[in-house]
Amino acid sequence: xxxxxxxxxxxxxxxxxxxxxxxxxxxxxxxxxxxxxxxxxxxxxxxxxxxxxxxxxxxxxxxxxxxxxxxxxxxxxxxxxxxxxxxxxxxxxxxxxxxxxxxxxxxxxxxxxxxxxxxxxxxxxxxxxxxxxxxxxxxxxxxxxxxxxxxxxxxxxxxxxxxxxxxxxxxxxxxxxxxxxxxxxxxxxxxxxxxxxxxxxxxxxxxxxxxxxxxxxxxxxxxxxxxxxxxxxxxxxxxxxxxxxxxxxxxxxx
Length: 254
Hints:
Blueprint: H1 3-30, H2 33-54, H3 60-64, H4 68-77, H5 84-96, H6 109-113, H7 117-132, E1 144-150, E2 153-157, E3 165-171, E4 174-178, E5 187-195, E6 198-202, E7 208-216, E8 219-222, E9 234-242, E10 245-249
Parallel strand pairs: 1-3, 2-4, 3-5, 4-6, 5-9, 6-10, 7-9, 8-10
Helix pairs in contact: 2-4, 4-5
């Protein structure tokens, strides 16, 4: 076997190992045994109650009115994976639709919906904090960026060889930031605010993503492979996603 054949074999094996690692990581991200347990118990209980109702031993309506317990259980099933927003939303909805109990004060849906304007205030506070907060250390015009989309869309590409950070604001709009050609010396910080909007950030492979974004009725999705060695360049994301979303991923083709 020639040296060229050996080199090709090593490349094929290494490439296949990376593919298998990504597949296993994605499976682990999406696999939640506690959610499967809740679904299994719910289906089992529904079948038994339906059969007993059919045989006339009980009235199914007396038991099916407790369906909100399923939502609460599903919310609690997300706790081991630290999906705090999903846990809170499901538990709150389940509690709202629970039948009235003598030992538990009943919370009406209108009471919860009446406080939604406070989310607007939360968005304003995030903007103020982002405007008055300190910029990334060593930020200059050529190694940082500022991007704002209000009721519209903005696309931005950054190709700095000494990228240190920036800030992105999407209010009822969308921002797409492409950092595929940027390089980080050691650490960079991006402040984000997605308020009724979305932010897409494309990063090259080899960067470590540190998510510090607070999600309020929103979400942050990290689609990077996460296969980074020790001492890899670090991109820190901080800010808020209020009824909006932030997505971090690799550019297509990488």
